[in-house]
Design a protein that fits this description.
The protein has 486 residues and is an alpha/beta fold. Helix content is 39%, strand content 20%.
Length: 486
């Protein structure tokens, strides 16, 4: 038993595998049939399936909520009708007989509740974060019920579990954080009996609730996080993230066609990629896996035979530079105070940035000035107004942060000495070094990102004489920005 009273998976002698399927991995009949085949291949272990909403559904739900809050109820209900028809068509193609009738009743009940919420939003004329959490959670409720019945239809003993009954969070709506002790206990109490009886547990990702039962969400892309939370609570042997790409790439293949799959990388390196905006995993995903030393695999549900990328405590030897990320829509902010930069100014600045939910990516200081890089550019006018009289705030938009990521990269002087001459003519005005030894970052004009990434990739990932087949990459995976819904 470990310090929290949890039994080690090595003592238990069985394997728990948590499999998360993203929106494009459940988007249509063919995708769900592939999911069924993948689950069947894992049935020698105890299996938990975590599913996102169908591709694009979360965005549609948000669109419907905004329309209702603006008084356009008809438009909102029409959007919901489209979502319903899509799920019904999938149910018709995947489930028959009495199971189909039961699923139809469940879906109709959920959709009636959704329509009632939209009527309430029209009346209140306000879609606050608490209501938004309730609204967006419907997508995962629909998809998880559908996938559970599809698995049963295929002869797999499966049980649906409402994730809101076992993942307990604080009340920070929009991006809630787990209450770990309560969550671990609830997950074990709810899922362990199902797994021990030989059933596959099916949950919607992204959704949770407070200890009082108020629906919350873990933030966009939070289904990855859900899978890691469940995996850590159950001391899983592995967490698998099934998506529509062959693994984590050396860079965004939309920017550089020579991008290749990274077969293995460390938790630390993957966390750096997430922090600097790479579309790899939800930024919080790795923390529970690191805590329990559970390897995470990124795999392609359209090519399940592929090796994918393994993320583990140790990555082994390899290139000094493991990946290159490009984070667009960055602003370079200068904060200047006649009194100089002291602890009082730092507290004031960070309080204002936190109040505006504006995270700081990189910071540097001189005696009278702070230089920051941020992604929430829309918040900057309000921040400048709040700091008026305390400090002068200026910023430049349309910047990009390009990062080299690798083990102890800052302790390898030849990396910077090779990179700088390669990009010296591209107005790379600032070379930023964060607190980590694993990144070196460059600030550049957004318009130069593609050429900058290509030059750096050619420098650190030279083409082999005979190029191997890295597979068909359908979506950029080291691309900055929001991850797909759920």
């Amino acid at each position: 038993m470990n310090g929290r009273g949890q039994q080690s998976r090595f003592d238990r002698g069985d394997d728990v595998v948590v499999m998360k399927f993203g929106g494009t991995s459940v988007e249509d009949t063919a995708a769900i049939r592939r999911l069924i085949g993948i689950v069947q291949s894992r049935l020698s272990a105890q299996v938990v399936v975590v599913v996102s909403a169908l591709a694009r559904v979360t965005d549609q739900l948000l669109e419907a909520g905004n329309a209702a809050a603006k008084g356009h109820l008809g438009s909102a209900l029409a959007t919901v009708r489209d979502i319903y028809v899509r799920h019904e068509e999938l149910a018709d193609s995947l489930v028959d007989g009495s199971a189909h009738r039961a699923l139809d009743r469940e879906l109709r009940g959920e959709f009636r509740t959704l329509e009632s919420l939209l009527h309430s939003l029209e009346g209140s004329r306000q879609l606050d974060l608490r209501a938004q959490d309730q609204l967006l959670g419907f997508g995962e409720c629909f998809s998880s019920r559908l996938v559970k019945e599809a698995l049963c239809e295929a002869g797999i003993s499966a049980a649906h579990v409402d994730a809101r009954t076992c993942i307990v969070t604080d009340a920070r709506h929009g991006q809630a954080s787990p209450v770990w002790d309560a969550t671990n206990q609830q997950v074990r109490d709810t899922l362990a009996p199902l797994l021990e009886s030989g059933r596959v547990a099916v949950l919607g990702g992204f959704i949770a609730s407070t200890s009082d039962g108020v629906p919350t969400t873990l933030g966009r892309g939070g289904s990855d996080f859900s899978a890691a939370i469940v995996g850590a609570a159950l001391c899983a042997s592995r967490v698998e993230i099934w998506t529509d790409v062959d693994g984590i790439m050396t860079t965004d293949p939309k920017l550089c066609s020579d991008a290749r799959v990274i077969r293995k990388m460390s938790f630390d390196e993957a966390a750096e990629l997430a922090h600097f905006g790479a579309k790899v995993l939800h930024p919080a995903t790795l923390a529970p896996a690191v805590r329990e030393n559970i390897p995470v695999y990124v795999l392609n549900s359209k090519r399940p035979e592929g090796e994918g990328t393994e993320i583990a405590a140790r990555a082994g030897a390899g290139n000094v530079v493991h990946a290159i990320t490009a984070k667009r829509k960055v602003a370079a902010v200068e904060i200047e105070s006649e009194r100089g930069v002291d602890s009082e100014l730092l507290r004031a600045v960070y309080a204002v940035f936190d109040a505006h939910s504006c995270a700081v990516d990189v910071m540097a200081m001189s005696p009278g000035r702070m230089s920051l890089l941020v992604s929430s550019t829309g918040a900057l006018p309000g921040i400048a107004a709040d700091l008026e009289g305390v400090a002068k705030v200026r910023w430049e938009n349309h910047k990009a942060l390009v990062c080299l990521v690798g083990k102890n990269i800052r302790r390898q002087p030849d990396v910077a000495s090779r990179a700088l001459p390669a990009v010296a003519d591209m107005d790379v005005r600032v070379m930023c070094q964060g607190a980590s030894d694993r990144t070196i970052s460059f600030l550049a004009e957004e318009s130069n990102v593609e050429e900058l990434v290509q030059r750096l990739h050619a420098l650190f990932f030279a083409k082999p004489e005979t190029s191997p087949d890295w597979g068909e990459v359908s979506v950029a995976f080291c691309q900055a920005g929001l991850s797909p819904a759920g």
